UniProtKB/TrEMBL annotation:
This is Galactokinase. PANTHER family: GALACTOKINASE-RELATED, MEVALONATE KINASE/GALACTOKINASE. Residues 92-177 form the GHMP kinase N-terminal domain. Keywords: ATP-binding, Carbohydrate metabolism, Galactose metabolism, Kinase, Nucleotide-binding, Transferase. Its EC number is 2.7.1.6. It is an enzyme of class 2 (transferase). Residues 12-59 form the Galactokinase N-terminal domain. Pfam families: GalKase_gal_bdg (PF10509), GHMP_kinases_C (PF08544), GHMP_kinases_N (PF00288). Belongs to the GHMP kinase family. GalK subfamily.
Length: 376
């Protein structure tokens, strides 16, 4: 797919507002290798930043007006600092609201957004947007917020401002990614470890399969899963499901809470095992972990869908070492890990399976682990 350039966003800014932006900032989308729905359970996850990024061109104003133009919607939002807009505008305006709550004098600004991160594909387009805006305003206002603090600002923007109860994985990878690595994130203490993930050097490819089935984390299902995990922890008398054991999971009398807990416990263990295998460059050996992760998300956490299941099965039939859904679920994307040179056969298998069901063909993205949010 095409990428958005700095020059393109600067031209868009000039066309929209009639003057030159002060600068351009960007943040990456992400794909999670393994560790799904574990972040808000104080667990472990292993995301990878994408080369696909959201870019924002920004200039400060000397009043309290906020103007934001989105290339994706071809609309311009106009409001005041502290107001949270509707739709796509909720995300950048919620960041300004969140920064103000932390004591920053935000002031007015003009902003243009353009992105190559697919929206609604489970690839964290929202965190790419919020993190690029937060970093830009922090830099332009000369604030001293650290990246750790900006992660919390962006989490609050999505959770409290937008009403999308995301965990902290997306914002953390956007702010701390390094090229050719995956990020092992411990959501209990916030610690991170960069795990080598040089796919080309290891002779592998990672393919993102965007099913084009749109999902929204604010539609209730994601929040319901969080509530069920919180309820399960309360029944077990623990702070979070990070502390649960397999025996405790099976002791729960409620079958739904038992299944949700089983997924979280086993997924954390799979993530630990995957990280250890990658440390010693045994890329192919993580296949069974990825496959088991999909089965757990489908059966125990119930966040898959027909399109994701078909994509995963077809990818494996086409020669992938492993495949699983990724992201919040209820649509979005899957990933397929394969030996180098197998992507044509894998994509053909998936497209054939979708065509047989008269579904729109998926969109494919080849993953090359990228870097963190930055000024361009």
């Amino acid at each position: 797919m095409s990428y958005v350039s700095k020059d393109s966003v600067l031209h868009q800014f000039r066309d929209a507002y009639g003057y030159q932006a002060t600068g351009v900032w960007s943040a990456p989308g992400r794909v999670n290798l393994i560790g799904e729905h574990t972040d808000y359970n104080s667990g472990l996850c292993l995301p990878v930043a994408l080369e696909q990024r959201t870019l924002v061109a920004v200039a400060l104003r000397d009043d309290q007006t906020v103007r934001i133009h989105s290339r994706q919607s071809d609309e311009t939002y106009v409001g005041a600092v502290g107001e949270i807009g509707a739709g796509w505008a909720a995300y950048p305006t919620a960041v300004l609201w969140s920064l103000a709550r932390e004591g920053m004098t935000v002031g007015g600004l003009d902003l243009v957004i353009d992105s190559s991160v697919p929206v609604g594909a489970g690839l964290s387009s929202s965190a790419a947007l919020t993190c690029s805006v937060a970093l830009a305003v922090n830099d332009l206002r000369g604030s001293k917020f650290t990246r750790d603090q900006l992660v919390q600002v962006c989490i609050r923007a999505e959770n409290d401002g937008v009403g999308a109860p995301t965990g902290g994985m997306d914002q953390t990878i956007a702010m701390f990614a390094k090229p050719s690595t995956a990020l092992l994130l411990d959501c209990q203490d916030g610690s991170i470890e960069h795990i080598p993930f040089d796919l080309r050097d290891a002779g592998f490819e990672l393919l993102v399969i965007d099913t084009r089935v749109k999902h929204s984390l604010a539609d209730g299902q994601y929040g319901l899963r969080r509530t069920q995990c919180t309820d399960a922890a309360a029944v077990l008398g623990i702070t979070s499901l990070r502390e649960a054991t397999a025996e405790q999971a099976e002791s729960l009398s409620d079958p739904i809470l038992r299944a949700r807990t089983r997924h979280v416990v086993t997924e954390i263990n799979r993530t630990l095992s995957a990280a250890e295998l990658l440390r010693i460059r045994r890329f192919g050996d993580i296949g069974s972990l990825l496959n088991s992760s999909h089965a757990s998300l489908r059966d125990d956490f119930e966040v898959s869908c027909n399109e994701l299941d078909v994509a995963v099965t077809a990818a494996r039939l086409g020669g992938a070492v492993a495949a699983r859904m990724t992201g919040g679920g209820f649509g979005g994307s899957a990933i397929a890990l394969m030996r180098a040179g197998k992507s044509a056969a894998v994509t053909a298998s998936i497209c054939e399976a979708f065509t047989a069901r008269t579904w729109q063909p998926p969109r494919f993205l080849h993953v090359a682990p990228g870097g963190s949010a930055t000024r361009l």
